[in-house]
């Protein structure tokens, strides 16, 4: 444990609650800022609930090394060298070179590896290679191959390749495959698929595909398999958590998850998800497992992630209203009736406050989650959606700590700025609710269509589908009737911001000259570009120039809503029919290529604001309070030491 973290834990009891002057932004470097979040409602939990959340959080944190290794086989060796230097180096730590080394280390920790967490391109240290070598030598590390890899930007230069030429499996840095081609992987899983199975298995979700002695095979991620030591630690904490479960459903769900981790049997993973969906009454809930397939170039392998949260009962009224009316939204969506669910089941949504972020959700995390991902489970058993309130609020509070804003620079006029300040934050939350609660859960596949039919375009198209569902319904009078929207024009602030971001401002996150590759960014660009083109004859969205600066202005909100509905209908058709070629055409035409002049302009204007385009978080520490040999409480301690937490985690949760 680092001295900083030791002091932090030792201070437990001195600062149970965050001080009134709580500072949200704790570190900034490169294109990143790090924030800390509070946990409203923690003190209202019972001791049993706190123990449940604590052990679930520990289970999540023990999965950390899995995510690092999944992102690239070199990541853990790189991290261990960085940790050695930061913990042991006795030389000059005030030099410009050591500062550049430290920034590199912070970036690697933030991204869970050597590739940018969002753009997915490899980054290298700014300090000279010879200097880095001297740091390694000073702490006894002499791996020249590792040093060469760190400084070779062309070696495994994309975490998930989006190349239009070449084999995207071979070109990707992710550690999901070894010695196999894309065709070999596709053929391998094609032999397993049974399109007539009403409950299809998500083949390949929890395994690595390799070629051994000329034979393509899977190596499972389970106890006794790949990642076995980490999964054993996860299971030990899940077993402890099970003792404190709030109800029998939670206990059964954890039991199934444990069995899945022991066997690697994906049927058990499905059984766990079916049971997990049933728990809608508990205060504490969690995510733990190989879940999202966004990082796999083929959209099949799942990255490990963990998250623990507690329900915000007051704020959940909005999402519960949406859940209760899910069938109405499904029935009235602008898609072909063939693609609608005749009976929407088990939609559960709530607003929560995060307790711990881990794996692929740490340090950078989504603000909303909808699970499980299996379409047949969504159809037959339902899904659970959460909007993570304390994370969204931290973003808002952190932005107030800076004098300049993206809104003031890129909004066309004061009316747009005032509208967003009045309605934007709340409207954004409503869109997230609609996206997660209803969007992902809407629609159905036609019989015989595989959930992996859209291949590498699946992730971006699915995010676009959910976003469009939310955009369409934000302007619907039904939201006013339900008391969810506060004003009939509130949606307009979100529409303006969405188009501005999709066409322009989001590309502050992309290096000049690079394509747009991240699934969520592709989703937003696809929607905004498609609507801009299709509405051109009516000037629905107008490109304006003032004082040499570009702005995008929505002129006709009603027409824009209609375009959102048209595109939603088409993307739902693509998904329901498994139309790979149509999905590919949409992504490649609208979602990838960035106008170089606009890209240069947005980067220059953003740089003048002195802001960071990406944000992530450090976790509060949950510390058991022991008296007379018994745990009498679990206290939350808020740290502001980003690097300290990374080194502490590297020590305590190292399993691989």
Q: List the uncertain runs.
A: 1-19
What is the arithmetic mean of pLDDT?
94
Helical percentage: 40-55%
Distance between the termini: 18 Å
Strand content: 5-15%
Describe this protein with a few key phrases.
single chain; alpha+beta; 26 helices; 656 residues; 3-stranded mixed sheet; 15 strands; 5-stranded mixed sheet; disordered N terminus
Brief summary of the model shown:
The chain is of the alpha+beta class.
Sequence-ordered SSE layout with sheet pairings:
Elements lengths: L2 H8 L14 E5 L2 E5 L10 H15 L2 H8 L3 H14 L7 H16 L17 H10 L5 H8 L16 H4 L5 E2 L3 H9 L16 E6 L2 E6 L7 H15 L5 H16 L2 H13 L5 E9 L10 E9 L4 H9 L1 H6 L15 E13 L8 E4 L3 H6 L2 E6 H11 L6 H5 L3 H26 L18 H17 L2 H5 L8 H14 L15 H16 L6 E6 L2 E6 L2 H21 L2 H11 L5 H12 L6 E5 L2 E7 L2 E8 L4 H11 L4
Parallel strand pairs: 2-13, 3-4, 8-10
Antiparallel strand pairs: 1-2, 4-5, 6-7, 7-8, 9-10, 11-12, 14-15
3D architecture notes:
The protein is α+β, with helices and mostly antiparallel strands. It has 26 helices and 15 strands. The strands form five sheets. A five-stranded mixed β-sheet has the order 6-7-8-10-9, sandwiched between helices. A hairpin with a 2-residue loop joins strand 4 (207-212) and strand 5. The longest helix is centred in the middle third of the chain and has 26 residues, at 414-439.
